[in-house]
Amino acid sequence: MTTPTKKITVIGATGQIGRQLVSLLGNRGHDVTAASRRTGVDLFTGQGLDDALAEAEVVIDVINSAAPDDSSEAFFKQAAATLSAAAAKAGVGHYVVLSIVGADEMAAEAGYIRGKVAQENAAESSGLPWTVLRATQFHELAEPITESLIIGEEVRAPEALIQPIDSVEVTAILARIAVSQPLNTIHNVGGPQKMTFSDMARAVLRHQSRMLTVVDDPSATYSGLEIDYTTLVTDDEAELGTLRLTDWLTRR
Ligand SMILES: NC(=O)c1ccc[n+]([C@@H]2O[C@H](COP(=O)([O-])OP(=O)(O)OC[C@H]3O[C@@H](n4cnc5c(N)ncnc54)[C@H](OP(=O)(O)O)[C@@H]3O)[C@@H](O)[C@H]2O)c1
User: Fold this and answer.
1) Going by CA atoms, what residue is nearest to atom 34 of ligand 1?
2) Enclosing domain of residue 105
3) What confidence tens digit (pLDDT) does each residue in 151-186 have?
4) Signal sequence: where (predicted)?
């Protein structure tokens, strides 16, 4: 069965996910408006937004803040409020947001995450049909996270699980959600394997042929966030990707 084509606005269209999404939806015949500041659409100020949403049946918010620090909270809150109001004014039929697994659990810890939760809440409280897709950490983060845990000759890993996922698979799921009936709830997706931070670090170091010692450290944090053992991983209900981190590292 073929899906009818839709008019879809992607906001954050020049980013890592946005670029792939615009191309995937366009290749499937959908009428895609690619929006970001580089195309004259600013979600912070609202500039260009009404035009970008004109006649849109679906809007997908995949923006990101320039700096993942506490200033992100105000950025995401303002951008989400602007988009929610404009999408309601335009009568958009499906408001889709990409967020992070465990966002609610981590919100007390960091402004960036509080911003992501505000972005989710804006869709939910917009009065429009909505879906939030929460994804686990992309494979692209495995190397930078490992790097951030190195102290001297050791990798000091938080005692927690992580579940890296292929961003291409996340994009495909977002594209599927965008052209399906709104779920009006949060849908979680994670990578195929739950692994400890130390297992992830060992996989990265093996791939990089580096001989550092990996140590579980109860005081280590994930980018300054004190996380519980299962904060970053999905529950049993979640959808799972298929590409394993080690295969992604090899293929890249
Ligand atoms: N990395 C992960 O592991 C992970 C996991 C789960 C969820 N996510 C979420 O995935 C989302 C997308 O991430 P990404 O890596 O694709 O981000 P990215 O590559 O940093 O792209 C961000 C996009 O936002 C646009 N943007 C920034 N400020 C804007 C503004 N004021 N108005 C309009 N557009 C604006 C940027 O374009 P311009 O500069 O042209 O405006 C760019 O297109 C993020 O919200 C992130 O939280 C990430």
Assistant:
1) 36
2) 7-137+166-189+236-241
3) 999 999 999 999 999 999 999 999 999 999 999 999
4) none
